[in-house]
Amino acid sequence: MKILGLIPARGGSKGIPGKNIKSLGGKPLLQYALESAKNSELLSKVILSSDDPKIIAVAEEIGLEVPFRRPTALAADDTPTLNVVKHALNYFAQKGQNFDAVCLLQVTSPFRRNGLIDAAIEQFSKGKFDSLISVREVPAKFNPHWIFEQNNGQLAIATGEKEIISRRQDLPKVYHRDGAIYITKTEVLQKQNSLYGNKIGFIDTTGDPHVNIDTPADWEKAGKLLTMIREQ
């Protein structure tokens, strides 16, 4: 299976200016995604998709392939990730290079354990999924079976059930995306116009160091986590 490793990193970050190339632990944030990708034996190619000359320059300095400059129209705050992925696939298709799937590696989730990418790809392939995402278990207190939504001044269980599950032990496991890995079949991306399709697999990263960097507080957390990781 030919899989394209795609690292998207646009300019214009508002929460943390220059976030994608800001130094974390002595190296640009972008480099963590690249190092994870380089540790993979199952990614066929790894590239950067960016509109920003500064990000592109840093990427080239650290050895990350930059085959094109992303159009400005695909680098706005509200640009769907799907469009960015399809742009990359179309670029290579026009050059006669086709991939069976894309593995999206977001710069803002820098901590991926060694072997995680290949474990995810193997699970994706064996399960014959349309897509696979990395997830973490939702703590019991945030389980949707214990969450209420307001309805005409009253509370209703968010899942639509009439009776609440009283015991924590009886709650089903639920998960949330952690942003570290998204793998999707090219056919699903192109024909269904979807990052997920109908059959979604998952790899559980609960217990791994994790942060999704969006705010200065997230950046501070990332620094503390990195210190902890390096001391282990």
- Mean of pLDDT: 96
**Strand fraction band?**
15-25%
Structural category is alpha/beta
Q: Report the order of strands and helices.
A: EEEHEHHEHEEEEHEH
Strand order of the largest sheet: 4-1-5-9-6-10
Radius of gyration: 19 Å
Q: Helix tally? A: 6
Largest sheet: 6 strands, mixed
**Spatial separation of the terminal alpha carbons:** 35 Å
Low-confidence stretches: none
The best one-word shape is globular
The helical percent reads 25-40%
In short:
This protein has a 6-stranded mixed beta sheet, sandwiched between helices. A two-stranded antiparallel sheet has the order 2-3. Strands 7-8 form a two-stranded antiparallel ribbon. With 232 residues, the protein is an alpha/beta fold. Helix content is 29%, strand content 22%.
What do you see in this structure?
The chain is of the alpha/beta class. Helices cover 29% and strands 22% of the residues. The chain is built from six helices and ten strands. The protein has a six-stranded mixed β-sheet with strand order 4-1-5-9-6-10, with helices on both faces. A hairpin with a 2-residue loop joins strand 2 (23-24) and strand 3 (27-28). The longest helix is centred in the last third of the chain and has 16 residues, at 216-231. It is globular and about 55 Å long.
What characteristics describe this protein?
six-stranded mixed β-sheet, 10 strands, 29% helix, alpha/beta, 6 helices, 232 residues
